[in-house]
Amino acid sequence: MAMHFRPRCAMGDAMITKIIPRPEHAISRKQLNRSALQTLYRLQDHGFTAYLVGGCVRDLILGRIPKDFDICTNATPGQIKKMFRNCRLVGRRFRLAHLHFRDEIIEVATFRATAANDDGSADEANRPDSPPRHLKNEDGMIIRDNIFGTPEEDALRRDFTINALAYNIADYSVIDFTGGLTDLEQRLIRPIGDPLVRFTEDPVRMIRAIRFAATLDFAIEQETWNIIRNQASTIKRAAPARLYEEILKLFLLGSAGRVFVLLEESGLLKALFPWLNRWLQGGGGRSELINKTLQWLDNMVHEGTPPSVGLMLAALFGPSLEDQALVRHRAGIPYQQALHACCSSLYEELRETLSFPAKVGNQLRNILSLQPSLRKFPPRRPGSLVNRQDFAAARNYLRIMADAKGETLPARDWWDAYIEGRVIESSAEAVPAAPAAKRARKKRRRRRSPPPKISNQLL
Ligand code: ATP
Ligand code: MG
Asked: Considering the entire predicted model, what is its pTM?
């Protein structure tokens, strides 16, 4: 990690807010989508402040296409509801407005207060009748943070400086409350305020730091990086459901290879996935292998055929599970039974920190269970194999592993040709030139069941 020094602006210090007028920044209204623009203007026409906020401003400045557009305003949820017929209010703790457009939902939130004080007492002093603005438990984790605030307070409660920029529809300026523009220029991930306090408040932010560093190809500021390395084990305190969501984003956004390296170096991998970490300790190129399997996933994302969660888990945990299953098999347990037992042990361990759906666990198990049959050459009863649940993902796993290990697998080529042939056949475009192995099987097997319906979907 590169070393970077710049005075840190502690939360609560007087911040020097910078306003960058339209001619001095690159965001143009042409980059915004119609629904977002329409929402911003409607709020403004009703006399409210309306900003684009968060990740979309960061992405627009970087010239990237934002995944979604988030809007913040000083209108209350009730006022927003009156202004928009397509509005539904969601969230029990903090009400947010979801505006339903034909093909997307725009989220509009009322500016929220910062969690800058240690115990909320200052806020209570200011507003004797109101409850404290935020509450932290004895570990310093925020357990409540749900009160309206000013635009600046809203920026200060965000995670990183680059995620706290705002675009003001009133004059098309960019507002930088926390030094985010300098960090964008220097390609730095830097928490707002004291990193130790911010990671203690919400340990998920450590994972988010890694996600942004990997996806944007930014460095994590040195002090922040040191704190993540010291605090990695506290990630287990995060809410399992949120952790699961963030982990999906880590591995499914096209930078899983880089994410893996950072997770390993930071110690977060050990804290999150002890099973995998133990296996990686065995060395012999295991880390490099996982890195390659994850890069395969990244290529799928970049090619527009994103992997399923089951395949993602298989790329991450498959090699360790198969290795362990083989060890048990050599000790006399039937392979499939050994594999299922290994999967169960892994799931038990994962459930201590993550809440992941049983369906996803089944997918991973199915993908791995199919491997011995898929690796057989020539294959037996391919017609029935393609109908097995998660066949498409299992075949992808076969390809991933063959490439990652540099194996020449006749079965892999056979399946590629078989699937390609079947797809052409089923669309009646041409009669495929069946591979040699398939022709041989066709001759031997006189009575064939009708061709199964299969899709060429990569998932
Ligand atoms: P992406 O483009 O990947 O969606 P994003 O920056 O929009 O990235 P989100 O998870 O969609 O990330 O969150 C939206 C915004 O909410 C962030 O930009 C950040 O300002 C704020 N935010 C999200 N999670 C946290 C958190 N744990 N702590 C503080 N602020 C957060
Ligand atoms: Mg977002």
From this structure: 0.85
**Pairing relation of β-strands 70-73 and 50-53?**
antiparallel
CB 290 within 8 A of CB 280: yes
Buried b (16+ CB within 10 A) or exposed e, 23-61: eebebeeebbbebbbebbebbeeeebbbbbbbbbbbbbb
Q: In angstroms, what CA-CA distances link 371 with 285, 297, 393, 418, 455?
A: 22, 18, 11, 17, 19
303-337 pLDDT, tens digit each: 999 999 999 999 999 999 999 999 999 999 999 99
User: Does residue 31 line the site of ligand 1, with CB under 6 A?
Assistant: no
Which tokens hold the place of 73? 């305003």
For residues 40 and 175, state if they share a domain: yes
User: How many angstroms separate the CA atoms of 192 and 59, rounded?
Assistant: 18
3-class secondary-structure state, position 89: strand
Please tell me the distance from the alpha carbon of residue 95 to that of residue 87, in angstroms, as a whole number. Answer: 12
**What is the number of the ligand closest to the CA of 163?**
1
83 occurs within a structural domain: yes
Is residue 208 helix, strand or coil? helix
Encoded tokens for 55 = 């990740």
For the stretch 246-283, pLDDT in tens is 999 999 999 999 999 999 999 999 999 999 999 999 99
Q: Which of 111, 163, 167 to mutate to test the pocket of ligand 1 (most atoms within 8 A of CB)?
A: 163
Number of separate domains in the chain: 3
> What distance in angstroms lies between residue 398's CA and the mean position of ligand 1's atoms?
35
Closest-CA residue to 178 (of 325, 9, 49, 405):
9
Cβ-contact 80, 73 below 8 angstroms = yes
Which domain, by its residues, includes 330? 187-366
Residue 294, domain CATH: 1.10.3090.10
Q: How far apart are CA 146 and CA 80, in angstroms?
A: 17
DSSP count for the chain of H helices, then E strands = 22, 12
